Amino acid sequence: MSAPLLSVEDLRVSFPTPAGRVEVVRGLSFDLGRERLGIVGESGSGKSMTGRAILRLVRAPGQVTAKRMEFEGIEIQSLSERRMHDLRGARISMIMQDPKFSLNPVMTVGRQIAEALQAHERPGRRATRARVLEMLDAVRINEPERVAKMYPHEISGGMGQRVMIAMMLIPRPSLLIADEPTSALDVSVQAQVLDLIDELVRDHGMGLILISHDLNLVSRYCDRIMVMNAGRVVESCAAADLHRAQHPYTRGLLAAVPRMHETRGTLPVLDRSDWSGT
Amino acid sequence: MQMLRRDWYLDDAPASRLQANAGRFYRAGGLLLRNPLAVVGGAIILLLVLTAALAPWIAPYSAVGQDLSARLLPPSAQHWMGTDELGRDILSRVIYGARITLMIVALVAVISAPLGLIIGAVSGYFGGWVDKVLMGVTDVFLSMPKLILALAFVAALGPGIENAIIAIAITAWPAYARIARAETLTFCQSDFIGATRLLGASHGRIILRHVLPLCTSSMIVRVTLDMAGIILTAAGLGFLGLGAQPPLPEWGAMISRGRVFILDQWWVATMPGFAIILVSLGFCFLGDGLRDVLDPKQGGKS
Amino acid sequence: MSAISLQGLDISYGSAKVVEGVSFDVAEGESFALVGESGSGKSTVLKAIAGLAPGWTGEISVLGQPRGHRPGRGFARRCQMVFQDPYGSLHPRKTVDTVLSEPLQVHGLGSRDARVEEMLRAVGLDRRFRFRYPHQLSGGQRQRVAIARALMLEPKVMLLDEPTSALDVSVQAEILNLLKRLRAEQGLTYLMVTHNLPVVGFMCDRMAVMNRGRVVEIAPATALHDGSFADPYSRALYAASGGTAHD
């Protein structure tokens, strides 16, 4: 394997509370190549904070420390805010949960995508337009010309999320962080959006970090899975081996999901005393 | 004895209603005490209340006793703030004036805040024509300058401190009604109101028990911030001779009388002016602090 | 007598019709699901039954009594609702105790202390939680309180609006188990709105699939085992939810 795209060692994120600083991410380490990594956990597990910490989007009073956090060999922590700004979007992109809150309501879809591109490079007007339409086509929007002229409130949630993906991918980043990219969408649209992300990531040879609460979904779209609980990775395995997971937390999570062929009278409930020694 | 312990207030699992409420106030109080401006504001207001309560004991002279041989004396060891044109001790008058100021502030708040709250909450909760009528009336009041409106009322009712209070209260409620309506609109569609309606609760009960408690915190903040304006309006009315009548030591009226001597005997108008500024500032500081504590979303967190 | 009966229900918001010609019956003691995607009108049907969406025409009756367009005191004793968002359905300034006592106060019922304690035990909340405020509770605990509030008046019919979709899977399992147990213990009828088909498989006996304001199919929950749906939309929804026919 070549040098990793992203290498994180001993990442810690902490927030002050009246009872002292509380760590929400406690010593996370991983290497990411050009592969698809899934981070799974329940709310409060620190999975979203991990994604934000990589992009240095954790706001004060939150505090991020790490022994090492290298992206393509560059130490992220020591970059100036300006350099970081150039890196975000251009080299690392992030797709957030709900497109409704991430799109500017008073700007057409086409202009927003064009702006995302122009923030990082300066192609001519013609070239920009061509790239925007090409990108809209790539995220399988049927009439790119028409959609480019629409405002965010005129398009559906699934289309909004595809527009977001277009915005994030148009500068051709080498790492995409998707934080619950489909949890605001209907099931029938979820699969389309995830398939699309999957295809684009493979085609461009990008790295992907998929953050989700849904174990099954992550196992379907990722190569490797890290299960987080209370700020720590409790289990790390290949996606294909998920059903052979060892840790009681992972097993508990898997068992707690109702199945389509449900015959159980009661669902097994996590016994949290099993592993949380602290 | 238990009530004096910190853990009792901060208990995560309170054992009674009393403890739960006490805990909530304890936490809010703690936040307030950590805000330096609020502490300064609170101290000024406390000073005002103490001064008003203890006026007969701390004032060195009578507030109305005249001594024509000691007219217009500058500040000195005997008269810390000097004397006015009738030889009355200004410090004593300012101290007694605190009572009048406090009374105006308290009465205006007691009349206008609940009035505004109820009108606004009813308007926002029911919507439709109720909302249109009530907000129409509110807009009529809001569209006129406060002092002019108060002047018109006092002119109609006759000068005097009581009428000044009524006039100020009448001009103050529309702003509160607007705020209460806006707040009500934001959560009258929320699930907890829907759930309460489903329990069979009457509209009156929902407004009184569920809607109003949510409006009150922003109302307290707003009223506190408005106190400064109320004091100034009262002083303005007093200055124009339409508020407190002589010989009542109202601060605005005192400035008005000192105006004649402002070039030669500056202290006559300046000393009550300082009192007005200090108390207004106190309320503003306290209001800002309360806002940070009561609704952290709006607070000026930078 | 059916617990809930809808006949030709149309619901409009202003001029837009969001639900059209919905008819179904839920038998007493049954657990019935309304499934569909966002915008299918499933939650609106629930709100209309509860009296929180007044713009409807058609016939709704609950336990044999026709429904008016607003919530009412008599209706409150027969039918209650649990909302989707546990963070929005509890008053932020009221303790658990106040929330649970309120229905008793509204209906002038006595021995409040004992009833509140008993209900807390029934929904699996420790007595310690009784005087807490919602912000001191987790999402799952809040939903338990909301369920307890709905059960305080001992209704026979419960309307459940996506009761677990805002919760983590491990907490979802706890709440689903709770709802299932309460139904068995108290002989409740459930009408549950959800987009999650496996949850239907666990909780319900029958389901109505809704699409664009219409019921396209009413099927037994066992259809989830083999994907034996008649309507193409139901089949598409089943496939998208990860169901594979005939395996």
UniProtKB/TrEMBL annotation, chain A:
Annotated GO biological process: transmembrane transport
Transmembrane ranges? Answer: none
**Annotated ABC transporter domain residues:** 6-255
Molecular functions (GO terms): ATP binding; ATP hydrolysis activity
Where does it sit, as one GO cellular component term?
Answer: plasma membrane
Q: Where in the cell is it found?
A: Cell inner membrane
Q: Which PROSITE patterns match?
A: ABC_TRANSPORTER_2
Q: Where is the signal peptide?
A: none
- Major location category of this protein: membrane
Q: How does it sit in the membrane?
A: Peripheral membrane protein
Describe the family membership recorded for this protein in Swiss-Prot or TrEMBL. Belongs to the ABC transporter superfamily.
Protein name as annotated: ABC transporter ATP-binding protein
Naturally occurring in which organism (per UniProt): Limimaricola litoreus
From TrEMBL, chain C:
UniProt entry tagged with the keyword Secreted: no
UniProtKB keywords: ATP-binding, Nucleotide-binding, Transport
Secretion signal: which residues? Answer: none
The answer to whether keyword Nucleotide-binding applies is yes
Task: Report which residue ranges the record marks as coiled coil.
Answer: none
Q: Which PROSITE patterns match?
A: ABC_TRANSPORTER_1, ABC_TRANSPORTER_2
Q: Where is the ABC transporter domain?
A: 4-237
Q: Which GO terms describe its biological process?
A: transmembrane transport
Which molecular-function annotations from GO does this UniProt entry contain? ATP binding; ATP hydrolysis activity
UniProt xrefs under InterPro entries: AAA+_ATPase (IPR003593), ABC_transp_ATP-bind (IPR050319), ABC_transporter-like_ATP-bd (IPR003439), ABC_transporter-like_CS (IPR017871), P-loop_NTPase (IPR027417)
Q: Which family does it belong to?
A: Belongs to the ABC transporter superfamily.
What this protein is called in its record is ABC transporter ATP-binding protein
Organism (species): Limimaricola litoreus
